[in-house]
């Protein structure tokens, strides 16, 4: 297995993903906008690059790979049009674009990949990749990210209230994010749009009260007058297509 994978954006998700992929025998190239992770990269046989798609620099060598995973927060369509033009001239055959379930509006109902999205920059960027026929793209819409140093209890700051307390949670653990991306690569699951979140959807008040108590030993305040708008993100397509079973599934029993 000599497939080369480039990861654009080696932060909270991209860096542990890169390390995991190297352990499975892939050749890895990783980027940040600075050299802050270069020592970690070298320790794990990841070739380091400094890439900022908002400024022009030659990324030909970085894009000399089979698969490109895009895990950055930039939402500027001009920057992505420039990136796509570079991908078209490269050896990249397949792209995994990390998106978010935030593209869906709150419907107070279950949403699937067939639901309409909001008119947002992220949805627009998704479409730039989806309609490009020069390479294959799978779009993964991750729910709220948590795990390890990203504690859900910290999502509710001490001076803030829990909004929409009767609404429902959509979250996914870092381990499942990594496992799902690896499964997409190993099964050649391309040209798909997939929702990725845990099966369980506890109510916000119940879940965040539990998580805040774990960190601060105090109950958070609750805005009982908020509108309780929500969506419940379905992961059924992903589980069926990838034959995937979530590692961290029951959010009320999660100890991370």
From TrEMBL:
Give the CC-aspect GO terms.
cytoplasm
| Segments passing through the bilayer | none
Write out the coiled-coil annotation as residue ranges: none
Q: Name one GO molecular function term.
A: aldehyde dehydrogenase (NAD+) activity
Domain 6-phosphogluconate dehydrogenase NADP-binding stretches: 4-111
What is this protein's record name? Answer: dTDP-glucose 4,6-dehydratase
Question: Lineage in the entry?
Answer: Bacteria, Pseudomonadati, Bacteroidota, Flavobacteriia, Flavobacteriales
């Amino acid at each position: 297995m000599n497939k080369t994978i480039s990861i654009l954006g080696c932060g909270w998700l991209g860096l542990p993903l890169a390390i995991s992929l190297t352990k499975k025998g892939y050749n890895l190239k990783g980027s940040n906008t600075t050299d802050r992770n270069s020592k970690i990269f070298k320790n794990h046989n990841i070739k380091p690059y400094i890439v900022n798609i908002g400024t022009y620099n030659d990324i030909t060598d970085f894009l000399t790979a089979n698969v490109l995973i895009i895990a950055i927060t930039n939402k500027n369509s001009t920057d992505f049009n420039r990136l796509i033009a570079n991908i078209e001239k490269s050896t990249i055959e397949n792209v995994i674009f990390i998106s978010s379930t935030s593209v869906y509006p709150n419907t107070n109902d279950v949403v699937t990949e067939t639901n309409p999205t909001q008119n947002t920059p992220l949805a627009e960027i998704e479409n730039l990749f989806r309609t490009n026929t020069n390479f294959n793209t799978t779009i993964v819409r991750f729910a709220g990210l948590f795990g390890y140093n990203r504690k859900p209890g910290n999502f509710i700051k001490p001076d803030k209230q829990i909004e929409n307390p009767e609404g429902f949670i959509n979250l996914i653990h870092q381990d499942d994010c990594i496992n799902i991306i690896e499964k997409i690569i190993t099964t050649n699951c391309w040209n798909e749009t997939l929702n990725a979140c845990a099966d369980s959807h506890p109510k916000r008040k119940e879940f965040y009260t539990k998580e805040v108590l774990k960190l601060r030993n105090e109950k958070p305040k609750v805005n009982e007058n908020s509108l309780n708008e929500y969506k419940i993100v379905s992961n059924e397509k992903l589980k069926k297509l990838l034959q995937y079973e979530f590692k961290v599934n029951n959010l009320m029993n999660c100890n991370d």
